[in-house]
Amino acid sequence: MELNYIALGIPAILLIIWIEYFYSKKANKVGVFKYESTVANLSVGIADRLFDLFFSAIFYSVYYYVYEHFHLFEIGKQWYVWIFLLLATDLVWYWYHRLGHEINFFWAAHIVHHQSEEFNYSAAARITLFQAFIRTVFWSILPLVGFHPDMVIPILLLHGVYSFFTHTRMIGKLGWIEKIMVTPSHHRVHHAANEKYLDKNYGDIFIFWDKLFGTYVEEEEEPTYGIVHPLTSYGFLWAHFHYYMEIWVAMGREKKWKNKLKLLFGGPESMNPRIRPILERRLRIYQNKLPMSSTYKSYINIQLALALIVLFFTVLLYKYMDGVSFVFICVLLVLTLINCGALLDHKSYAYYIELTRMFLTFLFLDYLIQGYWLSLSFLAAFAIVSIFYPIKGKYSEWVVGEQEKYA
Ligand SMILES: [Zn+2]
Ligand SMILES: [Zn+2]
Fold first, then answer.
1. How far is the CA of 96 from the centre of ligand 1 (A)?
2. Ligand that lies nearest to the alpha carbon of residue 187, given by its number in the listed order
3. In whole angstroms, what is the distance from residue 221 CA to residue 215 CA?
């Protein structure tokens, strides 16, 4: 049986997050984790891992294509090439990351990684596929120069693993290592919203690029984490698309193409900060700040746990999965992640997501057993029950009316 052992990374990441949580509690360190933020971070990470399954093969084939058709130098595969490649990868990363902060079109993808106001290993998982597309363009420089993709791909994986470990508040400064490597202390500065820490420490493995290009700052006081204008919602889709929408609206307000392009390729400082509140009002994006009962949290936890289990087996066994099943799983998982965000915000539209998800689950089961009666029976049962019982009303009351219990 051909299993994809990359799936084991999922329980490994969860274990590391749990250990960090355990130690933060033991050390009485406040504010390391926040329930809503952890759920939102994991939701973004789940979607990334899922879609990456499909796209990473395409990304890898791009590296081979570029190497075979366009490579500039014959670099070879000698042992010392690994060292040059590691340095070259880190340099490309530095510029990919820096431009990711300095150009709005790239920042729209990378901002998702910075939205978490809690800095921990769950925030490290907060990466998106949009970033992966942009990164692939940058990393194609390596095979273009002449580094063989057989070497490029393992180095890229190493990069991903290393940067995961720099997302923690539980590790202090690391002595002489701080001078060479990017450490948790350096990366805490990078995730800060404090004026003096903004747009600093872009490095991924080595810190000397920041020192060389003038973007290095040492951590002094503990940073405030997140983006300068924090989001007011834990909405899954909003987190992914709000900045693209802001750019779109800002461009729509400009008459001249030159100004439109300036917004697309200019920096975040060129954006009008009043656009987001307008969009939030128009789209009713906000979090109903209500307390959550333990049942309510358990309901979200079960959905997230199921999403993680489904993700694990999808990654492990995807070679045995047909296209239709994969599409069903993707849609069901994304609906679950949107639903978790809607529940965190106490939004009653979660009702429609739940209904759609239930129907599609039965439709998927029908597909697997080559039948049609499960989905039809569900529709019939739902129609009959809703005549005698106000399902929507009761559900909305539960999601939005939580505060009544605490009044
Ligand atoms: Zn960044
Ligand atoms: Zn980070």
1. 10
2. 2
3. 18
Residue among 183, 157, 156 at smallest CA distance from 168? 183
User: How many angstroms is it from 267 CA to the middle of ligand 1?
Assistant: 14
- The rounded Å distance from CA 114 to ligand 2 centre is 7
pLDDT at 407 over 70: no
Do 153 and 14 fall into the same domain? Answer: yes
Which residues 6+ apart lie within 8 Å of 234 measured at CB?
36, 37, 39, 40, 287, 341, 344, 345
- Could you tell me if 189 and 302 lie in one domain? no
Cα of 104 vs centre of ligand 1, distance in Å, is 13
Answer yes or no: are the C-beta atoms of 135 and 54 closer than 8 Å. no
221 part of a folded domain:
no
Residue 264 has pLDDT above 80, yes or no: yes
Q: Print the domain residue range for 194.
A: 5-213
Adjacent-strand bridge partners of 225: 192
Domain endpoint, select from 178, 213, 248: 213
- Residue 1's pLDDT is 80
In this structure, of 1-5, 141-145, 190-194, 364-368, the range with the lowest mean pLDDT score is 1-5
Query: Measured in angstroms, how far is the CA atom of residue 274 from the centroid of ligand 1?
Result: 23
Residue 229 inside a domain? The answer is no
Domain co-membership, 30 together with 176: yes
Residue 2 has a pLDDT of: 86
Give phi and psi for 206, each to the nearest 5: -110, 140
Q: Separation of 258 CA from ligand 2 center, angstroms?
A: 33
Distance 207 CA to ligand 2 centre (A): 14
pLDDT at position 38: 97
Per-residue model confidence as pLDDT tens digits over 177-207:
999 999 999 999 999 999 999 999 999 999 9
User: Of 213, 244, 261, which residue is a domain's last?
Assistant: 213
Residues 202, 308 within the same domain: no
